[in-house]
Amino acid sequence: MAKQLLPWTYVLLSLTAAEQPSAPKPVAAPMRPLPWGQLNFLQTTDTHGWHAGHLQESQYSADWGDYISFAERMHQKADEIGADLLLVDTGDRVEGNGLYDASKPKGRYDYDIFKEQDIDIICTGNHELYQADAAAREYTQTVPNFKGKYLASNLDYIKPDTGERIPMAQRFRKFTTKNQGIRVLAFGFLFDFTGNANNTIVQPVGKTIEEKWFQDAIREDVDLFIVIGHVTLHGPEYKAIFKAIRSQKWDTPIQFFGGHSHIRDFAKYDSKAYGFQSGRYMETVGWMSIDGIKSKGKKGDLKELELRSDMSFQRRYIDNNLFGYRYHTGLNESTFPTGHGQNVSASIHKARKALNLDYFYGCAPKDLWMSRAPYPSDNSLYSWLEKEVLADVATNPKRKDKPRMVIFNTGGMRFDIFKGTFTRDSTYIVSPFVSTLKYIKDVPFKAASQMLPLLNNGGPIFESTELQPWQLAPPEQLAIHYDIIAPQLSIQDSFISGAAQAPLLSSSPDLVPGYTTKDDAGDDGDDTLHAPISFYKIPNCIQATASMAEKSDPETVDLVFIDFIQPWVLTALQFTGQTYNNSHVENYRPEIFTDLLAGWIKEHWRGDCRS
Ligand SMILES: *[C@@H]1O[C@H](CO)[C@@H](O)[C@H](O)[C@H]1NC(C)=O
Ligand SMILES: *[C@@H]1O[C@H](CO)[C@@H](O)[C@H](O)[C@H]1NC(C)=O
Ligand SMILES: *[C@@H]1O[C@H](CO)[C@@H](O)[C@H](O)[C@H]1NC(C)=O
Ligand SMILES: *[C@@H]1O[C@H](CO)[C@@H](O)[C@H](O)[C@H]1NC(C)=O
């Protein structure tokens, strides 16, 4: 039997600062222990460069070096009890934090920091592939850094010198676990992504599973299939892979690891097939344990655990902070860190200094939330953009008196802004992309004014294309798309008719707000008890206008938009009867949006809130 879960216990450990000197101290909280099994996993996903941890949020303040210490301590424990521990990362390691985005070339320090973790199975996310240079670095740096561990089941790379198309990495991996002798066959997938630069080819999952190598692989005699992927647990891709494996192996256990939608999630496909996903941004480190695997390899003794004859799959979402890491390892401030972990924390600190990430831009006057505040409202990041920023930064000296509409997709923003210090790092955290403003001049007002409703309500015009308008919203909103999270209604609910109101749980005054996850296994997955946080549905796009006449509508406007949404805008324009194509799209401003935003903040958020 795996160890029974203990009831909530308050744990009093001595608390000290995390490894990044400016990180806030972790806060003591009621904890749930980690259930150990025969085979255990730690998962990271969608870290998006947050390898220094969260320097403004104590519950996520551990860094990549602390995670290395944690994994090393857990490996020691696994060896002591004769269990196995594997580490998994499911992609989107890049874009979203100054540690990756602020250097030239991007990731100059981050790849070397990341590679220090000993990951057993790793794959690619869509963010590694948007920019050709990032995809090339994936091939020349990350794949060799994780040689033999990096899997690319449906991803090819085009070599720049020869134009030759080759697998980004090996398609699958077969291995036997160290202590339990479990024979594993692992795959590494990416969802059916189409927005990649032209130096990679993502093959649709449905096609890949028909290929001979895959069909051969799923016929292999193994004790367990592990499918990792930058894939949502409830999307069509994992359903297809599950079906394909089950068509050959009706009884072999399958463990899926997902990513992309930035949520904590757990899915049951059948009694021996489960999926797990560990959130985003180094907020969450996932723990998964499996018991009852019938292994035909050499079976080690499990000293503290007894093998279950029936299978069990248990999960835990670990808040990434030192309080929890020490609690889960039973170690303290002096016994927890390893020399290797401390060295990596020191490298992160050095890199942050070299990149000047603490450089002060201004003081945010209040918290501005992506989905924790309704849209529109005073604390909505998007209301702030719409009312204060967009029209101001979308100004072209040659066209400044032309009436214009400025459209921005909500997914172009990646994180909340906290009241107080706003730094160079904050800029990349909020707006990591290298997007610029484009425009089409003199668009009939009638057509332009239909853009926002079409992009937000979708409908038949997009149905026959790969351009799903919900792809324009932040990935967290996918949880609503797949009915995993029922959003709270926002004040302006015109675009969310039909959405169910989530009950507001009564919150305990002592608890820090954070994840209160409900998944296919219930509501006891989080390792830390939190007060719940609101989650509102937001539109796909927002819009600001400028230089419009007071009384009458103009004949024509400049239709300004962030470059990412160009294909959607052109499709929507065609629907209104316009014949615009790519050749009509011109640059509106030369700067990337991130720099425009930083400029606006420097100018408008003056003052000094540094303590
Ligand atoms: C990819 O696009 C770039 C620029 O748009 C072009 O120069 C290059 O030849 C293309 N590469 C491939 C492999 O098609
Ligand atoms: C940490 O644990 C070790 C071994 O149990 C003990 O000797 C030491 O005093 C503890 N240190 C702190 C700071 O509690
Ligand atoms: C940590 O870094 C120091 C100095 O670079 C090095 O001598 C030492 O071997 C490293 N320790 C570990 C455990 O990596
Ligand atoms: C774009 O539209 C113009 C007419 O406005 C036309 O001449 C041109 O061929 C079109 N380009 C494409 C790629 O369809």
From TrEMBL:
Species of the source: Hyaloscypha bicolor E
One example GO MF annotation: hydrolase activity
Domain Putative 5'-nucleotidase C-terminal: 367-570
Family annotation (Pfam families): Metallophos (PF00149), NadN_nucleosid_C (PF21953)
Protein's recorded name: Uncharacterized protein
UniProt KW Nucleotide-binding keyword: no
GO process terms (BP): nucleotide catabolic process
Domain called Calcineurin-like phosphoesterase: residue spans: 40-263
Domain of life: Eukaryota
PANTHER family: 5'-NUCLEOTIDASE-RELATED, SER_THR PROTEIN PHOSPHATASE FAMILY (AFU_ORTHOLOGUE AFUA_3G04160)
GO CC annotations, alphabetized: cytosol; extracellular region
Keywords: Signal
First and last residue of the signal peptide: 1-18
